[in-house]
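Let's practice the habit of predicting before peeking. Look at the sequence and jot down your guess about where helices and strands might fall. Then scroll down.
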Amino acid sequence: MQAVDENELCFPTLFNSSCRKTNHPPSISMLIYFTLSSISVLTIIPNVLLVIAIIHFRKLHSPTNFLLLSLAVSDFLVGFLISFQIMLMDGCWYLGDIMCAMYLFLDYVITSVSGGTMVLISVDRYVAVCNPLYYPSKVTAGKSKMCILLCWASAVVFHSLLLKNNLQNPGRYKSCYGECVVVVEYIGEILDLFFSFIGPITVIIVLYSRVFVVAVSQARSMRSRVAAVTLHGSVRVKAKKSEMKAAMILGVVVVVFFLCTCPYYCVALMAQDTGVSTSSVAFLLFYFNSTLNPLIYALFYPWFRKSVKIILTLQILKPGSCDTNLM
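Done guessing? Here is the structure:
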């Protein structure tokens, strides 16, 4: 029987029941640490700035921006969870069974909330572009907040039931000390896959397909009438352009979400060993989606760039700064 060096164990004092560490070459360890740390920082800071901006500035209190706020909160939590992945580089969990269960539970919840928020964004744009006359009455800030609350609550309740055994008896499925794992029944995995990915993606594709068709139709209509509009008509044309521009920007967010999450779920759906490198790339891409979202806002939304400048220069502390016009 081959002897095991104590340095290879997560808990050397528990020689007979400790898990073994995952040994990486120093260069690989540094690369993993640098990559995960960079993604974590680049995810947390911009999303915190976005959360502060939407909460502080009253001009940003719109139904669409409240949805972006929900997405930013979930993205911030993703950046926070990445720090735990850094700790797991050697394959050992040192924070105990309760923290392990809560960490994985939060991971499940955030994943579902991100998908649910994307669905709400798609519905918001669908109503704004396809039914613009009814948008102000159908989509209000209060209704937006209620939908966001229901999205978070349903994700928490669903995964509390899904992970009930793991939450009631943390660590019951671990095979050795230093392992952080949860076990979900096969039917539960299928439900989670549908709840967090297949269902949201299906709804998003259907709604945005309709939005794209209507946007193209409206663009052609506006081009044909642009030379003969009255002042009132020009205002209406500008409003339509603004709604379509918002739809296109949020469409980019949805497409990025799809491209980043699809490989991860495809690996999970195939339920087979696809190799360490492929799984690792899909895993990193899944988390990297939360880093890209605020960068998309910074690229396309002038109000986000202005708000960040005000926050970083501490002008946000001035009296009346919450009423600053960022548009």
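How did you do? The longest helix spans residues 186-225.
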